[in-house]
What does this fold into?
Amino acid sequence: PRQLQWQRLFQTSVTQSRIPDFGFAFDIDGVLVRSSTPIQGAHKALSYLQKENIPFVLLTNGGGKTEEERVAYLQEKLDLPLDAGMIVQSHSPFADMKEYHDKTVLVVGGDYDQCQRVAQKYGFKNVVTPGDIYCAYPTIWPFGKVFDDMYKTFAKPLPKPIIPESPEDSLKIDAMFVYNDPRDWALDSTIMLDILLSQQGILGTLSPKNGDLGLPNHGYQQNGQPPLYYSNPDLWWAASYHLNRLGQGGFQHAFEGLWKGVTGGAELAKTIIGKPSQATYEFSENRLRQYRKRLWGNIGLNDPLRRVYMVGDNPESDIRGANNYDSPHGSRWTSILVKTGVYRPGKEPSCKPDIILENVQEAVQWAVEDAK
Ligand code: G3P
Ligand code: MG
It folds into this structure.
């Protein structure tokens, strides 16, 4: 019967007469793919929507590559024409932070210098990685030797040296961004901690309120240090392994523990974007609206995007984000949880979706009917 329903849907057209007033946001990992393996029905579901010119965006807490590189990879895996205007990755919204484009920023996470290249493509002109700092000053982390060969393959000269005795000439970080899952949690944590305990982000210094690093510092004040931006709170995600794997949220929890130990329990000021944040959902709706305009020309005011169906596998990011999203354009988001990723069928999801369905193919079928 499901197959028959799908065939009937596949043959009928829902958009012959009018511009669809609905669209989709699809999570990637656990909905469309499991790491590099496409999930059954993903190709069919998305190609149906493309045939019908029903707009969709791919909304992922993943990242670590440029949007162009990620869609090129997915295009090949899903055998579908995709372009960079159809995807929002965890760090995509960082591109809009133009106030830091001419400053010096630390970018953490991802393979080699890939995230550095992503940040540079967004317009950030002075991007430093922990690997760059380590290669210039190996004693900054005494246990890094085992990774020397890897770091040397991509490290670049620093824009400025670390000269604690003359802070004004020393490398100063103005903001820290975690673009993707850190690989070397030890070095990344050490560098981030140094910067958070420093004078105004000047590496090699200690802010006067932080006294001697030797003791847990109960008087720690985080003022004047550069802001810390994370791009993805996911504690777990659905990779190829049959059990869920730690995501960037795992690193955040680990770093939080380190911070509490070093400062004697001080709160860590940080900003976390990515799903389920309002900011990421707003950024995604704008990208969906732009794409809808590309599909249907200059849509008039009487052709609003009224409904968006969010299809996800993680109750904490996909479902909670869609349920809580307050659209500035007045669209209503329906959350659809599928059983092909993080969520384990049979248990109550930690955040209740509008509906639980088997997979993305069933989700599209149900949503197109619901939208009629
Ligand atoms: O790092 C990727 C993981 O956090 C989840 O990605 O596509 O399921 O939002 P996604
Ligand atoms: Mg997912």
Q: What stands out?
A: Residues 278-296 form the longest helix (19 residues). The mean pLDDT is 92. The pocket of SN-glycerol-3-phosphate (ligand 1) is lined by residues 27-30, 60-62, 181, 232, 234, 237, 247, 314, 317 (CB under 6 Å). The longest strand covers residues 332-338.
